[in-house]
């Protein structure tokens, strides 16, 4: 944390600041597809790459994979994504839907073991109106939660604190993944 000595016009404001410059890429929409095509989709790029550490992939299955969210709500925030570029949950195959469910259960078990999560938010934000940041490629969020884990920072300061680097979180979860 850094204490601000001056605000934008030269007067001391007494506020402390947590700098989160990585968020600017998210705000600018960098790597967000400009259209709905698979060629523009970051989830499709991840699914065809075998650079799991670089792309923060924790686990791969036959039809779906688990990946850390690059802009997490909390430490350990995972997404379960089908390999196939599909936008609507009702368009998944039985095998895809089953593997998404199985991987979600494994993610809960693994996160609980690694981070001692006390609860979870699990869900799909489907479509732009449903809050999906990348609506063209279905992804289910698995967000670990702890009692008292939220405070004024996200609401007032639009800042989240993460206690661990994403590559370290990825390594811990990948090493501890429970089938």
Query: How many domains make up the coordinates?
Result: 1
**What is the residue-mean pLDDT, rounded to a whole number?**
82
Order of helices and strands: EEHHEEEHEEHH
Q: Counting H and I runs of at least 4 residues, what is the number of helices?
A: 5
Shape field: globular
Q: What is the number of strand segments?
A: 7
Rg over CA atoms: 18 Å
Major β-sheet, in short? 5 strands, antiparallel
Instruction: Tell me the CATH architecture.
Output: 2-Layer Sandwich
The named CATH superfamily:
HIT-like
Low-confidence stretches are: 1-9
CATH class: Alpha Beta
Percent of residues in helices comes to 25-40%
| Category by helix and strand content | alpha+beta
Any overview of this molecule?
- The chain is built from five helices and seven strands, in the order ββααβββαββαα.
- It is of the alpha+beta class and 179 residues long.
- It has one domain (2-176): HIT-like (HIT family, subunit A, 2-Layer Sandwich).
- It has helices at residues 23-28, 42-48, 94-115, 152-157, 166-176, and strands at residues 2-3, 16-17, 57-60, 64-68, 78-82, 119-124, 140-145.
- Mean pLDDT is 82; it is low at 1-9.
């Amino acid at each position: 944390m850094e204490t601000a000595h001056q605000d934008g016009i030269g007067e001391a404001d007494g506020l402390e600041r947590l700098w989160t410059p990585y968020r600017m890429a998210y705000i600018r929409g960098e790597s967000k597809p400009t259209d709905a095509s698979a060629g523009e989709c970051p989830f499709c790029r991840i699914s065809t790459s075998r650079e799991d550490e670089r792309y923060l992939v924790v686990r791969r299955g036959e039809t779906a994979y688990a990946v850390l969210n690059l802009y997490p709500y909390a430490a350990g925030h995972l997404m379960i994504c089908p390999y196939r570029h599909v936008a609507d949950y009702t368009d998944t195959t039985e095998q895809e839907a089953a593997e998404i469910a199985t991987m979600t259960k494994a993610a809960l078990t693994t996160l609980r073991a690694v981070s001692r999560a006390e609860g979870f938010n699990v869900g799909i934000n489907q479509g732009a109106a449903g809050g999906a940041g990348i609506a063209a490629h279905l992804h289910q969020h698995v967000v670990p939660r702890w009692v008292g884990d939220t405070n004024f920072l996200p609401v007032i300061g639009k800042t989240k604190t993460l206690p661990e680097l994403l590559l370290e979180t990825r390594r811990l979860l990948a090493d501890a993944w429970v089938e």
